[in-house]
Amino acid sequence: MIPMAKVMIVDDEEGISSYLAEKLQEKGHNISMVLKSGEDAVRYARLSPPDIIIMDILLEGELDGIEAAKKIHEDFDVPILFLSGNANEKRIERAIQTGPFGILLKPFRGYELSAAVEMALYRAQAEKKIKEREERTAELVEANRRLRDEIEKRKRKEEELRLLSYAMEQSSEGIAVVDLKANVLFINHAFAESHGYAAEELVGRHFSIFHNKEQLQQMEDANRQILKKGDFLGEIWHARRDGTIFPAMMHASLLHDEDGRPIAMVWTLRDITELKKMERQLFQSEKLASLGFLASGIAHEINNPNSFITFNIPILRDYLNELMTIIDEYAAQHRDLEFFGMPYHEFREDVFRLLDDMQHGTDRITSTVSELRNFMKQGSRGETRKVSLKALIGKALSMCRGKISRMVNSFEVIIPDDTPKIRTDPESLKQVLINLLINAAQAADKEDSWVRLGVLHRGAPDNIVIIEVSDNGCGMNKETTKRIFDPFFTTKPVGDGTGLGLSICHRLMEQLGGHIEVESKPGKGSTFRAILPVQNQRTHE
Predict the structure, then answer these.
(1) Rounded to two decimals, what is the model's pTM?
(2) Statement to judge: residues 176 and 104 lie in one domain
(3) pLDDT single digits (tens) 403-412
C-alpha cells in the first residue's frame, strides 16, 4: 500500500491546480505547495523536498517544466509527473530525457490522475529500496573486500611471524631477548643448549645465570653500553650449567616500540671456542716455523764446535791417565807436593772432576742439538699405516715403564679390548706418548703419587680416539697452561730440560691430523689428552 505523500503541484492554470489538489486530497495525500513557475518549483523543492512533483511542461517564466525538472534532479531524486496539453512529439522527447515517472495528457479524469500518482509513488518507492539495497550491497562488498584484504594481510603477517619464529628457533647462533633489567623474555635452543639448559627453563630467569662471578662485571658493562649507545659487539666469557666456561662473540641491540621507546634487548651468541683454538694453532704454527729457521742455524753453529769437544775429551782423558801415572810416582816420593795451593791428591781428583763436568756439558749440548734436529725434522713424517693402538702403547710403555715406576707410587694403564685400530705414523705417536708419560711422572710431588693412561673411543659422528695421560702431581696455573706448548718453555729447574718436548708433541699431533689438550689445577695434577681420528685423512695426502 502506498502511504500518504507530500505533493508539490506546479501549473500556471489555476483551475487545473485546484482540480489536482482536490483529487489528490481525496486520496489522502498532502498538498505541500501549489506553484505556477519553474523557478519557484526549483527554489521550493530545494527548501522542502516533496515526495512527488506534478508539473506542467509549459509554464510561465524562463524555465519550462522540463528545464525545471533537470535542475531539480541535479540536487536530489524526486519523482516528477508531467502534465501536457498536447502530444507535441519533440516536447515529449525532451520530457522523456529528464526521466519522468509519467506524462498525463490533458484533459484527464480523476482516476487516471490517481493511478498515475500511485504508480509513480510505487515506482519511486521501489527504486529507492533498490538503490538502498544496492548501496548496502556495495557497502557489504566493500566491507568484504576490506575484510579479505585484512585477512590476507594477517595471513602474510602470520606467515612472516611463523618464518621469523622458525628462523630464531632453528638458528645455529644463539638468540635471546631480555627486558631492560636483563630478565629473559625469549631464548632459542642454540643459546640455551650452549649453556647446558633447555629453553623452557630459562624464560623469566636473569641473564646473569650464564656467567660466573668473574664474568659478571664484563656482562654488566656490556648492558650499560647497550642502554647508553644502543648496541654492543665484543667477546664475553660465559659459564655453562656444569661450571665450565667458554668464549663467545656477542652482539646486542636495543628494541624500540612504535613511539621509539626502548623496551628490550636482543642478544646473539656464537661460541668461538673452536675459532680461538684455531687461532692459537695458527699462531703456534707460525711461531714454530720461525723457530725452525732459528733452530736450524743454532744447531749447526753449536754442533760443529761441540763435535770437536766431544771428540777430544776421551783423548784428553787418556792423555791425563798416562800423565798422572808419572806424577803419581813423583808424588809418592814427595809427600808435600802441591798444585795451585792444593795437595796433590785433591788436585788429581779435581782434574778428573773437571773432565767429567766437561763430558756432562758436551753430552747436554749433544742432547739439545738432537732435540733441535728433531724439532726441525717434524715436517717430514714417517710411514703411516693402520696399527693396533693397544700394541703401539705397549711398545711405548716397554721403553719407559721402568723409569715411571721408579718415580711414582702407582702406574695404571686402561685400554678397552674393543679399541679400534687407527691409521697413523706409529713412531711419531709413540714419541708423543713417551714424552707425556715421562712428564707426568716428573710432576710427582706426593707420597701417594700416581700416573694413569686411559683410552676412550668416541664413535660417529666424531669417530675419534682419546689417549688420556693423568697425574696427581704439582699441576699448573692458568698462565703456565697457556704457555706449556711454547718452544723452550719449561717449568723444570735450569739444566733439567730444554722446553722442546711438549712443543714437539703438539706439532706432531697436528701433523697426525689430531690435537693435544691439557687441563690442570695447581696442587691437584694435570691431564693431557692426545686426540686422533680413527681414519686419518691427512695420511693420504
Answers:
(1) 0.44
(2) no
(3) 888 899 999 9
Q: In this structure, are 206 and 319 located in the same domain?
A: no
| Residue 276 forms part of a structural domain | no
Does residue 194 share a domain with residue 125? no
Q: Are residues 394 and 506 in the same domain?
A: yes
Residue 140 covered by a domain: no
Q: Which residue from 378, 396, 363 is spatially nearest to 501, judged by alpha carbons?
A: 378
Residue 83: CATH number of its domain: 3.40.50.2300
Fill in the DSSP letter of residue 383.
-
For residue 248, CA distances in Å to 120, 196, 221, 267, 270 come to 87, 15, 16, 12, 5
Longest CA span, the chain: 188
Q: What is the pLDDT of residue 366?
A: 80
**3-class DSSP string for 201-222:** HCCCCEHHHHCCHHHHHHHHHH
* CA-to-CA separations, 100 to 40, 57, 66, 73, 533, in angstroms, rounded: 19, 11, 9, 10, 100
- 221, pLDDT greater than 80: yes
**Grid cell locating 425:** 705414523
Which is nearest to 10 in space by CA: 60, 85, 78, 51?
A: 60
Q: What is the pLDDT of residues 422-458, one digit of tens each?
A: 999 898 899 899 989 998 998 888 889 999 999 999 8
> What total of structural domains would you count in the chain?
4
Cβ 429 vs Cβ 470: under 8 Å: no
- Nearest-CA neighbor of 249 among 228, 214, 276? 276
Nearest by Cα to 303 from 357, 371, 354: 371
**Domain coverage including residue 240:** 171-271
Q: What is the pLDDT of residues 325-383, one digit of tens each?
A: 898 888 888 888 988 889 988 999 998 899 988 988 888 788 777 766 665 555 445 67
Co-location of 420 and 493 in the same domain: yes
368 and 428 in a common domain: no
